[in-house]
Sequence to fold (993 residues):
Amino acid sequence: MVTTDAETAAQPRQRSQLLAPLLFLWRSYVLRRIVRALFSIYIVATVVFFLLRLLPGNPVEVYIGKLTSNGTPYREAAAQAASLYTFDPNEPLWKQYLDYLWGVAHLDFGKTLAHVSVMGNIGQHLPWTIFSVGGALVISVAVGLLLGMAMAYRRGGILDNLSSAIGSTLYAIPNYLLALLVVAIGSTQLGLFDIADVRGTHTDGVEIGFNATFFGDAVYHAALPMLIYFLTTVGTWALIMKASTVQTLEEDFVMVARARGLGGRRIGSMYVGRNAVLPLVAQIATQAGFVVGGAIFVEYIFNYDGIGGTLYAAINSRDYSLVQGILLIITIVVILANLLADLTYGLLDPRIRTAGKR
Amino acid sequence: MTALTPTPGAASRGMLYRLTRSKSGVAGFILVALIVGLAVLGPLFVPDVHQNVRDLSTGPSAEHWLGTDNTGRDVWDQIVVGGRTVLWVGVGAALITTVIAVALGSLGAYLRGRTDAFLLQFTDIVMTIPQIVLLAVLGAFFEIESPTALAIIIGLLEWPILMRSIRAQVLSLREREFVEAARLLDLGTGRIVFTEIVPNMAGYILINFIIAVTKAIFALVGLYILGLAPMSGINWGIMIRLAWKYGAIDLPDTMMYMLGPVIMIALLQLGLVMLSRSLEEVFNPRLQEG
Amino acid sequence: MNDKPILSVNDLRVDYRTGAGQTAHVIRGIDLELYERQSLALVGESGCGKSTLALSLLRLLPKLGRVTGGSVTYRGADGTETDVLGLNGRALRGWRWSEVAMVFQGAMNAFNPVLKIYDQFADTMRAHADSKPSKKDVYDRAAAVLESVRLDPARVLPSYPHELSGGMRQRVLIALSLLLEPRILVLDEPTTALDLLTQRAIVDMLHELRAELGFAMIFVSHDLPLASELADRVCTMYAGRVIETGTVADTFTDPRHPYTVGLIRAVPPVHAGAEEPISIPGTPPDLADLPAGCTFRQRCAWAVDECAEAEPGLESVTGRGGGMDHAAACLRWDAVRLHDPEVSK
Fold:
């Protein structure tokens, strides 16, 4: 590795004058990530459209069949079915596809079987999931990172071995089994809480609003799902962070920082911590997607009225437009989480910000 | 690093030896072996699940070790009989996942350029769709009849993460001398990938296969709990579903109907994870030291 | 010049735990003295313990390493003596860099990649100041040292490490090491991994800086020509010990330890027509399982049976009892010559 003084810094700047602005745009990290995210959303939307139309028993036909068997005239039934979608099932497929995409672009996913807006329905349930999953994830990441660093600093110690063992065990047990165990042991055996009481997102009669009563109640009801999300993810974070910290501790700049007489806290936070977290940022987003997916089980078991529970209900009642909407929205949330992680990574790592290449 | 040297035979001998020195690795192996043994051989000893319609939802007794379910069937018998499907789907799906991931990952990394970029982009997009959610939707709407079909669907959805790590692995293997040598001999891409590169990743693939099994079992049992998988026959997933549905969890007496299969699956997953972790330590001595 | 050394190392011993549960004796009883304004070179093959010695002077040994004996004493400008191995916590942090600074090999990774150069200078000043220095103070002081290594502070300070070339980074690191005006500068292979032109520039710069600022230098290198250029005295290290010590002139023109002879012969000739470089046969001994007697004996052309009996200590070669100005740890120092027709065949 021989580098001359002029080489590294100057090269990217001397490119064709004409292409410069275009290249700059392409090189722009932020822009590329956004384009990629939009492209991903488009592909997923397309896949979902064709997937649901290819399913055995075209959902539109099934719905019409149900109505006509109840005595509704075919024409009326067809019109009613069509009114559920953002496209007309009688149009040619390409027209349906374009109308559908147009709807997706406006976050308009049609109507549920109960003839309310799918997006409105999602809007009612998604915040609960974002609150419980997001909250648990923030706590889990924070605790996991600190724990992982502590384990790396004292590797081989009691804390390290104990946390590793507990972390691996909790990671291994599927979240829904842990939820069942918590219900079985905590509620039925020990009577620590009444499962019937903590079910749902909030107690009936508590007004939703910005006040302490509501917030306390929301936390009370979200506590068990959050506990499950927390327990099943915190060990993973601790273990990944430990590995990353161990690697960072071996870096030259950490030793140089010690030689420079810096205090342990400064080295731990800005030299070790920040560099050790970098490779984890992307994983946090991937993991977030996984937890949102797993929410369907946990919300089902705790009867938590979030997006996962709604999806379960929608699947069971064959509410196609709602299922389609939720599938898309969850995917979009995951893609946006990834985008956010990419952008955060760009902010945290100056090497990404300036250089165009990875 | 041992696993990556061009002499797989010598490496695997050292590997087995080192594996026996890792306590959690041995424990994981024993756990997995016991559960697999029970699931595979158990049904030979329990041809019929005992059913006694007068003993509905009883607690553990001398006659019924773990009690009976709400239709009077013996819970222990069901546990003995009900492991096969779970294992079959787990292993089957993991095989499909691994084959796809190894094929795409090594081809992409080996050919690089446009093929690689395309495969990577494709994988990234598949990865953003929450697999569990899509699986639930497909599971419900396709009205899957057999566990085998379930294994195929799970296998077809779970490969992206594995593909990325295989690709990274091949990228580094590609630079090794023996691959270089094979390329100079002009052995052809497919041959180099599958006779030179893949065998040298055997250990790595094995670890990822085990992880894929745990993921497939996670998805499968999850689907059963939601009631979105075929509910015919007896297996641990169905047991949990029915126990949950008929409120076995609310009474301390019938608790074992729920806890039995839950504990079996949890132990199986735990054993598999312990096994894969210590294999990882064996293949990657750096981790051990840390 | 002061008559007492500013740094003295007495019988220093360092062990490393190795992966197989063994103990490698990396430093096995080293004595060193560094005087004010002196430049001392530690030379030897990689693995001889020279970098470990440098690290242990600043108490920077990795977790696996441990000082098992000996002492390191630092004499401050006011004459107070500091037991370096006994320093801890605040006192150690305060002593590091303000009294002894270190320029590491591979400056590529010496800087925190996520902090601007300015912040890394500021961090260093803050760590050693009683009250938080102002931005202007930091900037002025950093600019002064950067200018002394001929870098443009306005360009360097707001940059991230990756935006600078390898040569620039090495200069920034030297500037950073001078930030607190230390009395001793330890340089561990400061020019390895740099191209020849940049190496040249750095060496010239170090000469000037030393003349101007008057710090003492401990210079670790496997590059003998470089050592001869930068150092006043040379210590040759082998298997964790100093096996020859002397002035640059003595060591390079009349080496008396076969290992030093081998190192000099292994230097590639600069001009054409000279003798081919001859590398030393064999490999250094296993530090976890040292042979009895002289550790170099298996690779040595002068070795005799007595060499297997006991490990020889440093002995003056300027005549018995004539001081340690030039000393070698070899039974046959009398017979060893750089140009020995019999051995060079």
Notes: Chain A has 16 helices and no strands. The radius of gyration of chain A is 26 Å. Chain A touches chain B through 52 residues (CB under 8 Å). The CA atoms of residues 68 and 74 of chain A lie 6 Å apart.
